[in-house]
Amino acid sequence: MHQPQHHLLSDDGTPADATDPVHPSRQLFYRQADRIPDLSLDSRNNNSHLFGATSSESSVGDVTQSHSEQQQETVIPTTSGLPSPEQLHADYSYRLHRAHVRAGHRNIVVGGTHGRYRDFNGTLIEVPEEVFAVRKAALTVFHPLTFCWLILTVGFSIAAGLGAARWTNKLSSLPYWAIFLPIWLSHGGILIMHIKSAMALSKFIHEANENRQRPDSTDHLDRVEYLALLQRSIKFGVKTGVLCFIVFIFEVLLYIRLCNSSAITLAQVYIPVWILTVIYILNGIVCKSQHLLQSLVWVLLFAVMLLSVIRVDYQLTGIVPASFIIALIIAILVIVTGVLIYVVYGHQIGYFLLTESQLTAGVLYSISSMLAIVVVAIMGGALHLPEIIQLDLFMITIFLAPFVVALAGLGAYFVTRDEFDRLLRYGGQSSNTPMRLRLEANGWNSVVGNGVAQIPMFGDVKYKPLDSAMKEMLSIDLFWLCCCSHFYSAEVEDEVNPYYGRPVVDYQSPTS
User: Among 182, 245, 319, 352, which residue has the least CB neighbours within 10 Å?
Assistant: First the structure.
């Protein structure tokens, strides 16, 4: 059985055994700079003495004492002289910090780059070095995929600005291939990232197979960590690859339609989006694996495409006005904005427990969706300014269009990087959240308490029901938001048992 390796620190914080050998089966994933030293030998002996433990250097005669003498000389440990857990933790953190500073690591601070040593709130994470090394090696598959959103953001932002300039006739002579070129280049970058991820996966599998052939292999322990991480990485890669391929097919069909309107109909341009929309609608109706609002957004998107096909392909402009299609698009953006405000406001009142990256992404998403409503209203002619205000709305559209895409893309990139950091710290295993017991009139009942929800554009989000006092305060103090506060679940207080305290008459024991 493999035992975890540790350093022994002297009183000045320097390592006492610098020649500690590395287990041969862990050499593939091991990193010398990631070792976590342990407490000093003196402190261990002192703690052992406090607990009345026997030292390993005791003589054989002391061990072979008679049973009667052991009973007479039994020392009952007292807790009066023991240090508190906070003091032990502070001493360990101080020694660890001094050792790493002496070794050359200058960024062992709160929020530093060594994610193995610091948590989100600055507390120490005691992860075994072997486990951390396996996670770091397995996540080399996921690391290239974290740049997908950043690459797409650059390409689509440039294309959005050029497309808005062509639509407003500011650059009327701009060819369509120049508008789509940044997007197609970004798809090329996505392909390169997927190739790098596949190469990292092949390399990891090859090294794991070699490690499995060793006589002292610990692959049966390592696979507990890396199998879950590989599954998440492959799932993310397949999902992003399929979605990017569908969008790429749609872009090619749209380019053909814009260059030659008689070559292909608008209904044929929508074929990739038709398939994607129908799948998500059936997933929400049949499988019920997504929220009702999410299914409603896909239904509204399907209606937008259907009405635009009727208006353009069949020339029924009188039956389907353009303002009705613009209104449906604005309705979709309003629903998305409301959901984003619900999540961000839920974090402010303590219902959702967002990380710093998720909160930043939520703010960026909210600003992007609000500005998108303004852009759609301007382009659809639904927004008109008074004659006193002399502003060129078309120029505002050209500047806002790429800004909207950039904010949404950066938010998605922050969420992806946050997911990568959490997998590195906590692993990829699904956590089981215990249910809370509540006393009711009919007895004890299990109710859902804290948990993790999968929210689109945010990933895994922790939530905690509000207590009754907080719920009442939101309903009284924030009367204009009381309707919104009812959407957050609260902890239900235990019901008073009506039989508690009543005299028992003619009670018969079931065992009598």
Answer: 319
Reported in sequence order, the residue ranges of 370-476 that DSSP labels E, i.e. its strands, are 436-440, 443-447, 451-455, 459-463
What are 221's two structure tokens? 């322990």
Structure tokens at 37: 């030293």
- Residue 371 to residues 332, 378, 398, 404, 408: CA-CA distances in angstroms? 13, 11, 12, 6, 11
The DSSP annotation for 37-79 comes to ----HHHHHHHHHHTTPPPTT--HHHHT--HHHHHHTPPPP-S
| Structure-token pair, residue 155 | 């390409």
Please name every residue paired with 436 in a beta bridge, in sequence order, or none if there are none: 447
Pairwise CA distance, residues 229 & 428, whole Å: 5
Residues whose CB is less than 8 angstroms from the CB of residue 157 and which lie 6 or more positions away in sequence, other chains included = 402, 403, 405, 406, 409
For residue range 312-326, list pLDDT tens digits in order. Answer: 988 888 888 888 999
Q: Any alpha helices (H) in 260-392, and if so which ranges?
A: 266-269, 271-282, 292-313, 322-348, 356-379
Q: Mapping DSSP to helix (H, G, I), strand (E, B) and coil, where does residue 169 land?
A: coil
**What are 68-112's pLDDT values in tens digits?**
444 444 444 555 566 666 666 666 655 655 555 555 444 343 333
What is the C-alpha to C-alpha distance for residues 342 and 189, in angstroms, rounded to an integer? Answer: 34
Written as one letter, the residue type at 408 is: A
Q: How far does CA 404 lie from the centroid of its chain?
A: 22
Residue 487 has what pLDDT? 54
Averaged confidence pLDDT in the chain: 74
Going by C-beta distance under 8 Å and a sequence separation of 6 or more, which residues neighbour residue 198?
A: none
DSSP-assigned letter for residue 202: H
Q: For residues 2-16, give the mean pLDDT.
A: 45
Q: Does residue 227 have a pLDDT over 50?
A: yes
Give 319: exposed, middle or buried? Use CB within 10 Å, 0-12, 13-18, 19+.
exposed
- Give first-to-last CA distance, the chain, whole Å: 54
Q: Which amino acid is at 72?
A: Q
- How far, in Å, CA of 123 to CA of 115, rounded? 11
Q: At what angle do helices 148-167 and 176-212 cross, to 10 degrees?
A: 170
User: Per this entry, what is the length of the chain?
Assistant: 512
Cβ atoms within 10 Å of 327's Cβ, excluding its own: 15
| 313-318 long-range contacts, CB within 8 A, separation 24+ | 313/265, 313/266, 313/267
Tell me how crowded residue 191 is: count the other CB atoms within 10 A of its CB.
Answer: 14
Which residue pairs, CB below 8 angstroms and at least 24 apart, start in 263-266?
Answer: 265/309, 265/313, 266/308, 266/309, 266/312, 266/313
Q: In Å, how far are 160, 169, 344 from 94, measured between CA atoms?
A: 52, 65, 36
Burial of 147 by CB count in 10 Å (0-12 exposed, 13-18 middle, 19+ buried)?
Answer: middle
Placement of tokens 């959005």 in the chain: 160
